[in-house]
Amino acid sequence: MASSYGLHSGYFHPTLRKWQGGAGTTIAPHNLMLPIFVVDDEDGIEPISSMPGVLRMGINTMAVFLEPLVAKGLEAVLLFSVTNILKDDTGEIGAKPSNPTVGAIKRIKRDYPDLLVAVDVCLCPYTISGHCGVLKDDGFIDNGRSLIQIVKIAKSFVLAGADVIAPSDMMDGRIKAIKDMLQTLGCMNRVSVMSYSVKFASAFYGPFREAAHSAPAFGDRKRYQLPLASRGLAMRAAKRDEVEGADMLMVKPGLAYLDIVREVKDRHPELPMAIYQVSGEYAMLHHGAAAGAFDLKAIVMETLTAMRRSGADIIITYFTPQLLDWLMEK
Ligand SMILES: [Zn+2]
User: What residues does 5-aminolevulinate 2 bind to (predicted)?
Assistant: First the structure.
């Protein structure tokens, strides 16, 4: 069953059109999406010890950092907020202009207007609990209240100029609620929705939690992320998000879940498919190469080729800066 939100949101931008190109195992710059952690201090630059070579940046630092990458062919980024602005129980600050990601979207659209700007939308950067939704007294997520907050944040990113909204909490109703908001705003044909539709409760996320300061204050995310062994739920999650109107689907993490990628792609061949090569995968390959176990370029290219072979059109990877160099060497 297809959604009723129309098709134009899937191909209004040149990079989106390339993602509709279909199968293949080659790796080109348009297959890569670079995650960026945006901090409050506009001139900030913070190394992340668990992810050597990856930085948290303020918007000025980010703008300088992006210039050579854009020159080498970078086409897409995925922004994450890392803010220390006053948090609360409902993530109210996420939708405020002081959210550093709002400034980052505007800056990229000013300096690099052709770059496709995707933005992660979740409540965990903005809630005191660090959980991805508003919590009820019993500790369960209040889905209705969480949806209202998620949509408010997504709307502020859209108004700042985001091309792709990427809700990442794996919960019910996100895609439809964001699509309804886009319809109301009259932005249906200029904003895509990329769902983190199939997101497992993985140990590979460890380094990201340091990078984004996003570890929950208590408990874990197993009530909303998928059990590691689940295939049936993974397929239901992808189907749910296609029905709700997602323009693209995603499986996260990548390497340990390529069987799921292939199955989702086979069941949803109409939708571009993303893999998030997550922080733990980055750290594993980086440290393995640093320890002499294998050559970094060879192992990263092999891993990404396997991801393409399994059905990924888009690979979200912290190796994007190196990959742009390696692709130019070829
Ligand atoms: Zn979250």
Answer: 279, 318
Residue 132 CA to ligand 1 centre (angstroms):
4
Q: What is the pLDDT of residues 83-135, one digit of tens each?
A: 988 888 888 889 999 999 999 999 999 999 999 999 999 999 999 988 888 99
Long-range pairs for 297-305: beta carbons < 8 A, 24 or more residues apart? 297/322, 297/326, 300/326, 301/27, 301/326, 303/254, 303/255, 303/277, 304/27, 304/31, 304/277, 305/25, 305/27
**At how many degrees (to 10) do helices 258-267 and 296-310 cross?**
30
Strand partners, 200: 226
Would you kindly state where each structural domain of the chain is located, as residue ranges? 14-19+28-329
Catalytic residue among 199, 222, 265, 297: 199
Task: Answer yes or no: is 308 a known binding residue.
Answer: no
Structure token pair of residue 214: 């996003």
On the 0-12 / 13-18 / 19+ scale of CB atoms within 10 A, 13 is: buried
Q: Around ion ligand 1, which residues have CB less than 5 A away?
A: 122, 124, 132, 169
The closest of 174, 88, 169, 100 to 129, measured between CA atoms, is: 88
At position 54, the amino acid (one-letter code) is V
Q: How far apart are CA 292 and CA 288, in angstroms?
A: 6
Place of tokens 């907020």: 81
Note if 222 is an active site residue: no
Q: CATH code for 14-19+28-329?
A: 3.20.20.70
Ligand 1 center–CA 258 separation, angstroms = 23
R_g of the chain computed on alpha carbons: 18
Element holding 26 (H helix, E strand): none
Q: Is 199 a catalytic residue?
A: yes
SS3 176: helix
Tens of pLDDT, residue by residue over 297-322, are 999 999 999 999 999 999 999 999 99
